[in-house]
Amino acid sequence: MKPLWIGILAAFFFAFTFILNRIMNLEGGSWAWSASLRYEMMLPLLLGLVALRGGIKPVLREIRSNPWAWMLWSFIGFVLFYAPICFASVYGPGWLVAATWQLTIVIGLMIAPVLEEGWRKQGLVAAFKSSIPVAALYTSLIILLGIVLVQAGHTANITGRELLLGVLLIIVACAAYPAGNRRLMQISGGRLDAPQRVLAMTLCSLPFWLLLSLYAWITSGPPSAGQLYNSLLVAVFSGVAATVLFFQATQMVRSSPQRLAGVEATQSLEVVFALIAEVIVLSAPLPAMTGWVGLILVVGGMIIHSFATLPKAARKTGSVRTESAGPSN
Predict the structure, then answer these.
(1) Per-domain residue ranges for the chain?
(2) Which residues are in coiled coils (predicted)?
């Protein structure tokens, strides 16, 4: 159960992303600054964290061993994840973006067989059958239904174009984040721990964030003091704390697709955390009845999903043996 609890703690810190991004949008801040500043501010924090543990050299060695793969999958896992999330936050409250983001549970389950090295030999259909547990698939569909109801309860407040654009962008993010995370776990082969892997991905995605900063400067000028402060909070709480915790949890169960899906499902609690914070901090209106039903399905589906992905022995004893998270280097 330890990876699941770590995943829930990561969801709490991840919720800060949706709230703070919404605050920055309401204050007139550029979504491009919100996206790029997070990772630019994460870099010195991660460098200090990893350096204190003597882990910088293994990170650089790992990147040098396969630079193009690290660049590609870091772009997919970080840039194609966070830039769309920030842009989508322009169109709706943080809890709505957080609810739609839970599509990553379903999409992560679907892309898992494609990322496995042996799927070409056995065929994609056979790979899906062998790696996707039926119980996890059914509970993912419950979560998906909940997301549809959450969106349906909000459609009266935004145009069809805004809804479509926001959802499509989040779908891109939902596929990119687990794909980048899982592929680089495979590429690094346990040689990097979670903070080191986050640092490596941040370093390799930095050129893209600098280009996005240039775009933000040209289109909206320099960031305000408020946006700088809120971006620093996002970098600390979501970029470092949440990402390291989530990567640690996924690395602990990296050899079990079922348990990996269960850890990823814990992120649905971001919806609850984001909704509570947004109502308290921003006095946001509560969801409509369909929205409440959708939220119940999302969270209930996550709980069922997490239980369904535990080994049978763990369900009886209430515990689960975790694997080594890999050497600290």
Answers:
(1) 2-317
(2) none
